[in-house]
Amino acid sequence: MASPTLVKKSSDAPLRAKGKELPFPLNLYQTAVGKKWVMALTGIMLLGFVVFHMVGNLKLYIGQVEHLNAEGEYKLDYDINIYGEYLRELLVPLLPRTYALWGLRFGLIGAFALHIHSALTLTRMNQVSNVAYSSKRDFIAANFASRTMRVSGIIVFFYLIFHLADLTWGWTSDEWVRGHVYENMVNSMSRPIVALVYIFANILLSIHIFHGAWSMFQSLGINNPKYNALRRGFAAGLAGLILLGNISFPLAILSGVVDI
Amino acid sequence: MLPDAGIPEGPIADKWDSHKFNVNLVNPANKRKFKVLIVGTGLAGASAAATMAELGYDVEVFTFHDSPRRAHSIAAQGGINAAKNYRNDGDSVYRLFYDTVKGGDYRSREANVYRLAEVSVNIIDQMTAQGVPFAREYGGLLDNRSFGGAQVSRTFYARGQTGQQLLIGAYQQMMRQVGLGKIKLHTRMEMLDLVVKDGSAQGIVCRNLTTGDVTSHSGHAVVLATGGYSNVFYLSTNAMASNVTAAWRAHRKGAYFANPCYTQIHPTCIPVSDDFQSKLTLMSESLRNDGRIWVPRDRDDNRLPQNIPEPERYYYLEEKYPAFGNLVPRDVASRNAKTVVDQGYGVGPAKNGVYLDFADVIQRDGRDVVEEKYGNLLQMYERITGEDPYEMPMRIYPAVHYTMGGLWVDYNLMTTIPGCYAAGEANFSDHGANRLGASALMQGLSDGYFVLPTTISNYLADKLGTQPLSTDDEVFQKAERDVVDRVQEFLSIGGTKSPEYFHRELGKLVWEYIGMARNENGLEKAISEIRALRDEFWKDLRVLGTKDTLNSSIEKAGRVSDFFELAELMARDALTREESCGGHFREESQTEEGEALRQDDSFAHVSAWEWHDMDTPQTEHREALEFEYVKLTQRSYK
Amino acid sequence: MSNTLNLTLQVWRQPSTNAAGTFETYQAHNISDDASFLEMLDIVNERLIEDGKIPIEFPHDCREGICGTCGVMINGRAHGHEKGTATCQLHMRKFNDGDTIVIEPWRAAAFPVVRDLVVDRSPLDRIIEVGGFITAPTGTAQDANQQPIPKEVADSAMDAAACIGCGACVAACPNSAAQLFTSAKVWHLNSLPQGQAERYKRAESMVETMEEFFGSCTNHGECSEACPKEISLDFIAYMNKDYIKSKVKNRRMSSQI
């Protein structure tokens, strides 16, 4: 059994019975501390993705460069499109084309699945463990970010689906062309509503990261008084950079700084 | 007749070893056949429970708290003595023994105190092995400090929370046995009667404080580790729930109560601020190591203390006792504070305190050093009084803190009821008439870890093959009925005043007449006034609510009703003891300089009181104290 | 100097565990600001008894901030607004005349209300009994100075050991997690040389027992803010690390440095 079953709400009887221990490494995922550890590790993977994704997107601002294409001739092309193609050709000829990319994608999908599953099961555990106060709570340390992880997580998840549909699968526009990253982005984000969706979702993503990128140190047990003070700064800085980077794209497109 | 205390023969240094050899043992395989009931989970109770369970006895533990970790041993701040001589300053088991007998004003048993000093070293080893984070020096070895007037540094401490750390250590060790199933733990269960049949203890009757259920529990032996009775004064440094009930119920069933008049007044507490005050807060005695105690020379000086120039301050302890100064023993420090306050030198809004001043040490060592040493205490003071002790001197006044008296026990810690033991503060203990600082923790752990687990087999060995008495037996049934009736009576008096009211009124009487200074007239007055108040209690008590849920008024009423009977015995004991010794100061017996004057010829004995019934006063039995090793002298701290 | 306050109290009243509870409003007039919070409740109770009404049951004992018995939610904060202060050490001078004070018991599924403001915290004892100790039966100890312990280690162990077991961490946690309580004990013992033999077993069994009763830590940090002993969140990280190690490490090699 993966998660413990609910027993009884009273003091000396446990709320949930300890399940039979699974073989390593599955046993790590049987307890909340273990799940938080998995959540932190998958969070790091997802963070890595977000950072690389943003850095890649910054190529939007490079615009067109001269580029030696597959036919062996120099042509002007958008740098970000070249980068997109490069990702598909990653590790070629060690691996066939797109295999490395798919490897990364499967890794990310797995990380997402675990990140979300652990969040869901822990949330359920907490709902069972907690009894709401009848009077108003006055929180001191819990901040907007930490209190809204579940909401921001869910919204970011739906945004992700939308984002894939919009720019990876091209479902939201007839103008979408595979491989034309630059044009697709500009076309998509020129629609103010879509741009707003991107801005809003990235604000939530940054809020999610603001707590997550600090929290992961605790969950992993990375704690040393010598650098503890830096952990908050790291999380805030990372969230800020991602926020700035990611909302700059719709803003730049909307304002016409970047266009076709 | 008082039984023989059973002090082993031989030189004092060999008594405990030879006794350990001579006690009857129980074979390891047979230990599980004996059920031991332990009431109380403070240092003595928890350590005894843990150790006996480790030995293999079938142990059941009872506490009225919601968790065994709440016991009031937790509040001890200063430290624990041990004759380790880690400082190489001339300490030894013999010196600790000698200091303790002397500090107790020669009213304790030499053999017991020697044993205490002897096992003190094992306690530190034991607690360290269990992970108690005693203070350490940079070299990683244990730190010591001098405490409570001792002239050697033999006190081990864990910040200002030594009691907490030791209690939690003992609690953890006990909880390990609970987890292993060797101890059955009953929380929120208050012992309300001891059951005795054929002259020996058979078990106890308890009330479940949550449900009101009254149940019997039977065992081969009963250990009472239920603490002291300072709360008879209403205002004391004890926790709100600390009470005498378990010991008193045992007393009413035949256990003699020894030296009830020996109560200790701790010199450094925060003065009473108002009549709603519920308890007094102790400031560790360690503060006297660096703080200076004074009052203004002018009784009507209304200046802020920091503005009073040096010549106009009366450092009364330093002037009177140049050798010990502010570090005189507790009883001396307390009495002198009372004297200056009675003379009108008191400070603070109610003129009921004296200053404890850190200005000099802050100037000498810097605020950081003071904060490191005493930070948590000074912060606590600031919280309670709203005054900043770094800026202005603290105000302190003595408060009742510890009771040296308690159930009479023999060398095996057995009361006069065979099978019923008393440990820790609940017994009349090894402290004589005055306890030295940092010795209570030592005694509780000594009793629980090392003495009781060894001596109890002497009684149990004979019981091999017997079963504990069935709780269906008529003695248990009757005891249960009595408890139920008593609870019902509290509920049905239907008067107008709360148990709290009676407790407060009783406390005022006890403090007034049986407090820091006592005299014949006052004590006689106390007896009649206590009786009158007790009569009123049984006529005019108001306890609301029902008995089948948590109802602290019922708990309180029961405890207060026992305090009435104890208070009267305290007065009678104080009246009988026509001398001053340690915490007991009879105004009729003092030196010309106003110091306590012992009367060794007539009072070098323990007074143990035997209960008869409500209408007959207890009779006194005397155990003569013989001093083979310690020379009786007038204590002098000049 | 001392002033008096007139306060309105909204106090949770609940006759027993299974009965329904509700807030009752009481007027607390002429309360000296020198009174402690619990003394204020004492006064209210005395007046209730005078009026023939059943007094409020509230948890308390030592009243000097060390036993861990007391603890209620005061205006939405565990132990009230004063940092590093248990309810018993909170004084009325921290309140203003005319204030309304809402008093509610600790809430957690593992802490059922016994009556009014009193809850049952015995699951905390269950966590201790499975590993919150160093196995050192009486009599087995070596000399206390045999093993030097660096002062920094002893101090850190002491910081963790300062926990009073009041349960404010659980009460303050939006998830009713007991991580701060558990980690304080785990770190106290796991940081010391004496505790090394049982280190991983301790972390494993204490965490797993904790999770039978309490929620999961989401690193809000409310617990540490509410803690009357200001116990640090660092210990939670250390515990998490030891727990994961307990699953990963080859314990046969755990005495090798």
Structure, explained:
The complex is a heterotrimer of chains A (260), B (638) and C (257). Chain A is mainly alpha-helical and 260 residues long. Chain A has a domain at 29-62 and 116-129 and 142-254. Chain A has helices at residues 32-57, 79-88, 99-129, 144-147, 149-168, 181-189, 192-220, 228-254, and strands spanning 64-68, 74-78. Chain B is built from 18 helices and 19 strands. Chain B has a five-stranded parallel sheet, with helices on both faces. In chain B, strands 11-15-14-12-13 form a five-stranded antiparallel sheet. In chain B, strands 16-10-18-19 form a four-stranded antiparallel sheet. In chain B, strand 6 (189-197) and strand 7 (200-208) form a beta hairpin. Chain C has 257 residues and is of the alpha+beta class. Chain C folds into two domains: 4-115, Beta-grasp domain (Ubiquitin-like (UB roll)), CATH 3.10.20; 121-253, Fumarate Reductase Iron-sulfur Protein, Chain B, domain 2 (Orthogonal Bundle), CATH 1.10.1060. In chain C, strand 3 (73-74) and strand 4 (77-78) form a beta hairpin. Chains in contact: A-C, B-C.
Q: How many distinct helices of chain C?
A: 8
Overall 3D geometry of chain C? elongated
CATH topology of the domain at 268-401 in chain B: Flavocytochrome C3, Chain A, domain 1
The main pleated sheet of chain B reads as: 5 strands, parallel
Weakly predicted, low-confidence segments of chain B: none
DSSP, total strands of chain C: 7
Main attributes of the structure:
heterotrimer; A: 260 residues; mainly alpha; two-stranded antiparallel ribbon; disordered N terminus; C: 257 residues; alpha+beta; Ubiquitin-like (UB roll); Fumarate Reductase Iron-sulfur Protein, Chain B, domain 2; two-stranded antiparallel sheet; 33% helix; 14% strand; elongated
How is this structure best summarized?
In chain A, 60% of the residues lie in helices and 4% in strands. With 260 residues, chain A is mostly helical. By secondary structure, chain B is an alpha+beta fold.
Secondary-structure map:
The complex is a heterotrimer of chains A (260), B (638) and C (257).
Chain A: H1 32-57, E1 64-68, E2 74-78, H2 79-88, H3 99-129, H4 144-147, H5 149-168, H6 181-189, H7 192-220, H8 228-254
Antiparallel strand pairs in A: 1-2
Helix pairs in contact in A: 1-3, 1-7, 1-8, 5-7, 7-8
Chain B: H1 12-22, H2 28-31, E1 35-39, H3 43-55, E2 58-62, E3 80-81, H4 93-103, H5 110-129, E4 155-156, H6 162-179, E5 183-186, E6 189-197, E7 200-208, E8 214-218, E9 221-224, H7 245-252, E10 257-258, E11 263-269, H8 287-290, E12 292-296, E13 313-314, H9 316-320, H10 330-345, E14 354-357, H11 359-365, H12 367-385, E15 394-403, E16 406-407, E17 420-422, H13 440-460, H14 474-493, H15 499-514, H16 520-540, H17 552-576, H18 600-603, E18 605-610, E19 619-624
Parallel strand pairs in B: 1-2, 1-9, 2-5, 9-17
Antiparallel strand pairs in B: 3-4, 6-7, 7-8, 10-16, 10-18, 11-15, 12-13, 12-14, 14-15, 18-19
Helix pairs in contact in B: 1-5, 3-6, 3-13, 4-5, 5-13, 11-12, 15-16, 15-17, 16-17
Chain C: E1 4-13, E2 22-32, H1 37-50, E3 73-74, E4 77-78, E5 100-104, E6 113-115, E7 118-119, H2 122-129, H3 151-161, H4 168-172, H5 179-190, H6 199-213, H7 222-226, H8 234-248
Parallel strand pairs in C: 1-5
Antiparallel strand pairs in C: 1-2, 3-4, 3-5, 6-7
